[in-house]
Amino acid sequence: MNILFLSHHAELGGGEISLLEFIKALDKNKFNPVAYTGCEGPLRERLGKLGIQAGILNLPEYFWSLKRDPSRKNPISSFVKTALIFNKLIAKIKYIITQDKIDIVCTNTIKSTCIGIPAARKAGVKSVWWLRDCLTEEFYGRFFLWFIKRMTRGADLVICTSETVRRDYLNLAGKDKTSKGKLVSNGVDLEEFRPNRRNEALRDRLAKREERIISLIGRLEPWKGQEIFIKAAEIALAKNPNLKFLIVGGPLFGREEYEDKLKSLIEELGLKEKVLLLGHRSDISDLMAVSDIIVHASYLPEPFGRDIIEAMACGKPLISTNIGGPREIITPETGILVEPNRPDILADEIIKLINDPAKMESLCKNGRKRAEDMFDIKKATKRIEEILLQV
Ligand code: UDP
Question: N or C: which end of the chain has fewer CB within 10 A?
């Protein structure tokens, strides 16, 4: 079966890493994956390394970045231009489907879904929307949500990565789509992310022996709560100076201004020695291994939260905000849930956990067990394979 995977950009966010992990584990005797991205970028390179044929759609920059379309000043010309681009892209994807003898189109981002589903319908093949976003006004404008609903109604199946994502999809698409929305969680490679990995050299580079390491791992994005994490660090350090805070993640999708803001905040609070901004890293399993606690501080509902399942697989204690995907993934036995936007509460929980080694140990053990039971990439891939064969 030939599957066409579509992404309108080529950055390496959680959705793209989940897709790569899935393609890596996919049974290549049954499935032949082909991929197209909107532009050049790390996702394309990683697909290439997996031996996957990956083409480029050459989309305009404002289509895949946060940069504004210059013609947006005039809403009518902007609308006409966007409609023309969409039509051209739908025709292009339809051509690829026919040329590559595609059986199923599987879209991995919202914009690629708005093109991929109409193209699949026109070409007479099935379409699966791998939905990894919360379709709410917290994240998107009203007009765009209306547009998404219109363009995606022909999807044969919608794989939702969490119950939160599924609920928001059904609220937008309508309850009559209930049978289309299937919940399948992302998976993690339990070999790469495993407990008791040691990397003393890395640990020594990042912190003093007596310091405990608390890390937040995720691309730099205001709603991911890096600012709250820094404020919590200040409060916690006043109670226990033997702590080190790591912020791991890059300014993907053009978030450089936010990165500058975080740097200024760290400087302003005099925390340069204690809070490190490490930028985007590709050694996450090692960074998790040297961390004592993983924090997830998103103040808007995280659609899934790969960092959470990776931390669980590594057997690391978690402190997370009590909303979105993380609230579904984390049980009282595997982590601590806190109110969003409350650096004071976050700091308190960090201090309490550091002072409670027995609790730390039980969270670690139970987290690994939950990752093995619920988030094994091999099991998740099998489920998706079954779904693709039945669609
Ligand atoms: N990640 C990474 N390098 C970084 C920061 C994050 O490889 O510097 C990975 C992280 O390990 C996780 C993913 O990016 O696998 C983030 O996924 P998540 O679902 O947390 O967030 P998203 O990017 O989808 O919003």
Answer: N
Joined together, the tokens standing for residue 313 give 């697989």
Alpha-carbon span 30 to 382, nearest angstrom: 12
Identify whether the C-beta of residue 106 lies closer than 8 Å to the C-beta of residue 32.
no
CB 272 within 8 A of CB 266: yes
How many whole angstroms from its chain centre is CA 354? 28
Residue 343 Cα to ligand 1 middle (Å): 22
Determine the 3-state secondary structure of 363 from DSSP: helix
Minimal-distance CA residue to ligand 1 atom 6: 218
State pLDDT tens for residues 149-201. Answer: 999 999 999 999 999 999 999 999 998 999 999 999 999 999 999 998 989 99
Centre of ligand 1 from the C-alpha of residue 132, in Å: 13
Domain residue extents for the chain: 2-187+376-390, 200-374
**Predicted structure pTM score:** 0.95
Pocket flag, ligand 1, residue 17 (CB < 6 Å): yes
Hey, is 361 helix, strand or coil?
helix
Return the residue whose CA atom lies nearest to atom 16 of ligand 1.
Answer: 14
Topology of 2-187+376-390 in CATH? Answer: Rossmann fold (3.40.50)
- Superfamily of the domain at 200-374: Glycogen Phosphorylase B; (3.40.50.2000)
The Å distance, Cα 95 to ligand 1 centre, comes to: 33
Closest-lying ligand 1 atom to the alpha carbon of residue 279:
8
CA 218 – ligand 1 centroid, Å: 5
